[in-house]
Structure formats: C-alpha cells, structure tokens
Amino acid sequence: MEPPHDKPTQSPPQSLPTTAAHQHDHHNTTTTCINCGGPTSFPPPPLPFSDTSPPPTYRPIRAPAVNLPPNANTKQAIILTPAPEAQKTPVVSPTYQFHTPTKRIHSQDDIVRFQSSATCKNFLGFIVALSDSIRCRKLSDPCHVSPTVSTIVSILQTLIQFVDEIPPVQQSARYGNLSYRAWHERMSDNAEPFMLQFLPEDVRSATVELVPYFTDSFGNSSRIDYGTGHETNFAAWLYCLARLGVIKEEDYPATVSRVFVKYLELMRKLQLVYSLEPAGSHGVWGLDDYHFLPFIFGSSQLIDHKYMKPKSIHNDDILENFSNEYLYLSCILFVKKVKKGLFAEHSPLLDDISGVPNWNKVNRGLLKMYKVEVMEKVPIMQHFLFGWLIKCSKEAADGHDHHSMVVVTDGRRPFSASALARTVTLFV
C-alpha cells in the first residue's frame, strides 16, 4: 500500500497592513469593504427610496394597531359632511310601475349623482327616522307591534331554523363554509312566498322588486361573504316596505327593537356557523367587520342615559348585564368575544369613540360616517339595486326609466309593460 500523499503546505497569506483606524464599513451599498477590499459579513442594506420612487403607502394587514395616522381625505369628508336628518317616507300610490331592480352605479360620478338625488336623501332620512324612533328606549320597552312586524320576525326566525337544519360541512378553509350556499338557496326559494305572507293584495306584484333586496340582505352565496353593503340592502328592503305603506311610522320602534334585532341574531349565527368572510372589511381600522347600523341604532338608545356613557363600554359588568337591552353594548360584547387581544388593538376606532363625551355626538358622528364610508363608496354601492321604489338619480330627475316594468293600477293583473377615521374629532 502506498503511503498517503502529504498535502502540499500553503504559505500563510501575506498580512495586510492595518491601522487602528481601519474598520470594515458595512453601511455602504457595495458587497466589499471600502478600505481593504475584503468581503463584508452582512449583505448590503437596501437602497434608499428616491424622490421618483417613494416608499409604498400601504401598511401590512397585520401591522400593530397603534399610531396609524388618519386618512386626511376621509377625515375631512366626514367632518364637512352634514349629518343626515330624519325624513318622512313618501308612500307610493297607483299607478304602480314595479320592475326588476338593477345595478346602476359604476363610477364615482354615479355616486355623486345619486348622493344629490332626493332618493338618497330620503333613504338616509328613513335610517335616521329609525334611529330617532328608538332614542332613549330599551329593546324590551313596550311598543306597537303590528301583524306585519310580527310576520317579518317570524320569517327571520324561520331562516334561523334553516341554519339548524343545514349544518356546516367539515372543511379545511378558514372562511366560507360551503353549506352556506345550501342555506342561501333555500332562503331564496322561499323569499317570494315569505313576501306574500304579509303584502296586501293590491301590492303583491311588488315582489319583483322586494325579493332581490331581501335575498341580497344575507350575504353573497358565490363569495360566501357578508358586509355593510348587504346590511344596507336589508335597510333598503325595509324602506321599500315603508314606501308601500306596509310598514308605517308607528311601526318604526318595533322595526328596530323587534325586526332588526332578529335580523342581527340571524346574521351573527350565519357568521359563526358558516364562517362568512367579511366583505370589504377595513380590518382593525374599520368600525366592525360586518355591521354598521346597529351601532347607529344602539347609540341612539343610549342618548341622555343617566349612568352609561361612551366610556362605559370598557366596563365588562355593564356589557354583560345590559347588552340584551342596548344594541351598541351588544355589538361591543360580541366583538370582544370573537376577537382576541387588547380591545384598543383589534378595535381602535371603537376604542377612540369611547372617548367622545356623550352619546348624541356618537350618534351624529356615526350617521355622518355611514354616509361617507358606506353610501359614498363605489365598491359598496356598485352592488346596490335600483327599481321603481328606489329610483336611480336619472329616474328621480325625469320621472321614468328605460327598463322593462310592470304597470299596475289597483292590484289586478298588469295591463301594460314598457321596454377613518379614527379620531374623536370626527364626532362633532
């Protein structure tokens, strides 16, 4: 066996002259030392942003919920917009011209036209009127409950039973349980029969407009999501019933304390059982992942309350004992149960609103915010429907439209057809 060859020895490299002042500068943009030419231990830092290529304006979704500067444009828009005022809802009369509602908003210009229309002002006025009707009232306070209101509550209870009959399937996805589509299909199949349970004989043909608003009030079956746009559709459905005279002004307190409360119960069950994805949620910087209107109605309930102030939402005993009587407290309690961590971090806007001195300012600020953040946003309102009961701006101006419609005189068969802001200063 041959002896192993010895590896040739290498002479040590000639040492470079060093001085006490010599250091590797690792804060330059090259990969070698500027003094000795040797490799640096760490990769170079990224190039600084130039004036022609500024840093991105977005923030990571999971950024900590602290010290986010408010959006100046949105803040200014909310401050400058006047708070909507309550309006009486005009009741339609024959000749009726019901037709299938369609989407008419496609751009910001369409939003501007709609916002300036009497239709938009009256719809917002209806929401304010509902809010005023529950002012300083508990949910359990006695109120006039008409047969129509009782029937609507019964319909919503039936939809809750549908959830119990259609359990969620086992799946790995976090959001969007596929069983929701089966629930939505059953709800849609029963929508028109539901309407016919309480509609007077002379306006039963209005189902052509009522059903689309109703079926779009509980989320989207394709995306399996739900958001403030769907909630607005439910308000639009109630508005259409008021336009038909089916819901009268004396029914408004029960419409909130009975109908809307049952609707909120249904939606929370749908959200939890079928894991509906928030539609267009602002994340931690939004008021809530799914809802807006219960905060408006709930803040109206608490106006001039002797003991409970906006800051009372931080008292867990108050939330537990009074959430069944006040919608605002109910919403806060629900948020705290479904979200983990510090309240100020996962809901900074609600936390900031708690610093407003009184509920009247909270209510007015939320109404202004609803107008700007919901009714003036194209991504939300592009899905809103317009028919004869809720006219688009052009229809409101010229008194007619260019869609096929059903014309009814007295309820008989149709006789003709034609072709964030997150600072409390916003709540002033």
Main attributes?
single chain, 16 helices, three-stranded antiparallel sheet, protein tyrosine phosphatase activator activity, 428 residues, two-stranded antiparallel ribbon, PTPA_sf, mainly alpha
Structure description:
With 428 residues, the protein is mainly alpha-helical. It is 42% helix and 4% strand. The protein has helices spanning 72-80, 108-115, 118-133, 147-165, 179-196, 207-215, 228-243, 252-273, 293-301, 316-322, 327-338, 343-346, 348-353, 359-373, 378-381, 393-398; strands spanning 96-98, 102-103, 225-226, 277-278, 385-386, 405-408, 416-418. The strands form 3 sheets. The chain has a 3-stranded antiparallel β-sheet, with no helix packed on it. The chain has a two-stranded antiparallel sheet with strand order 2-5. Strands 3-4 form a two-stranded parallel sheet. A hairpin with a 7-residue loop joins strand 6 (405-408) and strand 7 (416-418). The chain is globular.
Concise account of the structure shown:
The protein has 428 residues and is mainly alpha-helical. It has helices at 72-80, 108-115, 118-133, 147-165, 179-196, 207-215, 228-243, 252-273, 293-301, 316-322, 327-338, 343-346, 348-353, 359-373, 378-381, 393-398, and strands at 96-98, 102-103, 225-226, 277-278, 385-386, 405-408, 416-418. The longest helix has 22 residues, at 252-273.
- Low confidence ranges: 6-30, 55-69, 395-425
How many H/I helical runs?
16
Radius of gyration: 30 Å
The helix/strand class is mainly alpha
Average of the residue pLDDT scores? 81
Kindly state the number of beta strands: 7
Alpha carbon gap, first and last residue? 97 Å
Largest sheet, strands/sense/barrel: 3 strands, antiparallel
| Overall geometry | globular
Sketch the topology as an H/E string, one letter per element: HEEHHHHHEHHEHHHHHHHEHEE
